[in-house]
Amino acid sequence: MTTVICPICKGQKFGKFSNRPSAKCLTCGSLERGRVIYMVLVKLGIPRAEDRILHFAPEKCFIDLFTKSHAEKYQAFDLFPERYKNSKTTVRRFDICEDLNSMPSDEWDFILHNHVLEHLFCSVKDVLHGLARILKPEGTMVFTIPIHKRQKTIENLDPFLSEIERKKTFGQKDHVRLFGYDVMYTIKESLGVNCFIPVTSLFEEEEFVKAGIPWQPENEPNGKSIFLYKKSGKF
Ligand SMILES: [Zn+2]
């Protein structure tokens, strides 16, 4: 049997997360999608040492990594910074729906956000467009979103919808939408290109098994699928 080793921290102990046995690395806290992202970044050589990095809803494993590698060139933002009390960097409060418009254009080399868009009480298209705007030309944005086995995305931006209703409809009390396959068009329309990277174009099954990540290329697009956008010129 293959020994499973976390590619991020080299830990070998894994635990259950959300009914998925061995989903979480017990050393660095990474989930499968975090490990996929890490492997993609290593494979593609991003971010470069000189890059300015912007990270939304930052996972602990990446905070630790980028704080070490990029120090003050790394900025982490979240709507609820109080959740990151013992973090190695200062996570600043940022409301993507409200604050993105006031950010200068062409500022960041690398933007990372995982499972953020399903939480936002504003237009996914506008947000993706705004994020592309603040990327430097030739900058890269990498993101993942939960995509469900359904054709159409459903959403409800009513601020008064109860958490119980949200959980019932969208699967989590703080989700405002459930992405279906049509989100692929939304992303393409927002960014002007199809930035979905099929897992088979970058990895072999063995690399996933070794990193404790289920290999399910036939189930893509899904919550671990990589979207990578490279900005060419002005946006
Ligand atoms: Zn780990």
UniProtKB/TrEMBL annotation:
One of the protein's GO biological processes: methylation
Species of the source: Lyngbya aestuarii BL J
Domain Methyltransferase type, residue spans: 72-143
Name of the protein this chain belongs to: Methyltransferase domain protein
Record keywords: Methyltransferase, Transferase
Domain of life of the source: Bacteria
Keyword Methyltransferase: yes
Keyword Chloroplast attached: no
InterPro entries per record: Methyltransf_11 (IPR013216), SAM-dependent_MTases_sf (IPR029063)
Gene Ontology molecular functions: methyltransferase activity
